[in-house]
Specification:
The model has no long low-confidence stretch (mean pLDDT 93). The chain is α+β, with helices and mostly antiparallel strands. Strands 1, 2, 3, 4, 5, 6, 7 and 8 form an 8-stranded mixed β-sheet that branches. The chain has helices spanning 3-11, 71-83, 135-139, 190-202; strands spanning 24-35, 38-46, 57-58, 61-63, 90-95, 99-101, 105-114, 127-134, 144-150, 174-183, 186-189. Helix content is 19%, strand content 36%. Pfam families: NUDIX.
Length: 208
């Protein structure tokens, strides 16, 4: 194969995320609701019946199904299923920046309006409760931030003889930031807090 053939082939590609086909892909909706004339965000408390992260606070959403035409369709479908509302009660759905997270995950966040919170009937098998936080509160609340260190531990049969430095190779200790928002007796943290913090930034909802 000559260089011209290689370059011509590459010129037809759209760059993306390496190994994307192996990533677990999910989508969430940041639901905006109006209560007494003020904008709020709806949050869910995950049911204690769930195997993964019971009791954690999250946005409506979940893993993409083969039937979902797009991540947006996934976010809307999951929201209707979890909150027990009809599709036409979710309007003005808009994407924000997606997240390439730890452990090979891609999360597509969307923002949308729920038009009638009185019709919300949470699916008890997935949702323990819902609550609402005023954006005015979040705008003036700086999240607490803590670092989590991640240690690199090669597996037992790792081929140290193939790398410079062998068993004395200087692995870098990595860390990531965890954010925490407190509201009344609730604590919003993890990816939900990171997505929330980014939403507040891109929507210009943070104090200067």
């Amino acid at each position: 194969m000559n260089i011209e053939t290689i370059l011509k082939h590459l010129a037809t590609r759209e760059p993306g995320i390496m190994g994307r086909e192996n990533f677990k892909q999910s989508a969430v909706l940041i639901p905006l609701v109006e209560i007494e004339g003020e904008a709020h965000i709806l949050f869910e408390v995950r049911s204690m019946q769930l195997r993964r992260q019971p009791g954690d606070i999250c946005f409506p959403g979940g893993r993409m199904d083969p039937e979902d035409a797009s991540p947006m369709d996934c976010a809307i479908r999951e929201t209707t299923e979890e909150l027990g509302i009809h599709y036409d009660q979710i309007t003005d759905v808009t994407p924000i920046d997606y997240v390439v997270a730890d452990m090979g995950r891609i999360i597509y966040p969307y923002v949308g309006r729920i038009t009638n919170i009185n019709q919300i009937a949470p699916n008890e098998s997935e949702v323990g409760e819902v609550f609402y936080v005023p954006i005015s509160y979040l705008k003036q609340t700086k999240p607490e931030s803590y670092k989590v260190n991640v240690e690199v531990i090669p597996e037992e049969n790792f081929p140290f003889d193939l790398i410079v430095g062998g068993e004395k190779y200087n692995w870098q200790t990595r860390h990531f930031e965890e954010l925490f928002y407190r509201y009344q007796d609730k604590v919003i943290w993890g990816l939900t807090a990171k997505i929330l913090n980014h939403f507040l930034y891109v929507a210009d909802c943070r104090e200067e």
